[in-house]
Q: What sequence folds into this?
């Protein structure tokens, strides 16, 4: 589980895409886009828990 609210303004894909998927499992969408390894590494700072 990630809280990306601090990242909204900096997201290269725009705020809208994050707001559309907020509160859902975004694993498939994240993988489909093909985020860089840096983007994957940066997720650590937004992690707030796990399910």
A:
């Amino acid at each position: 589980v990630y809280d990306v609210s601090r990242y909204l303004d900096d997201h290269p894909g725009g705020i809208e895409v994050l707001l559309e998927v907020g509160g859902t499992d975004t694993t498939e969408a994240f993988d489909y886009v093909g985020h860089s390894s840096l983007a994957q590494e940066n997720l650590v700072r937004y992690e707030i828990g796990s399910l």
Q: What stands out?
A: The CA atoms of residues 21 and 29 lie 9 Å apart. The chain has a mean pLDDT of 93. The chain has one domain: 5-46.
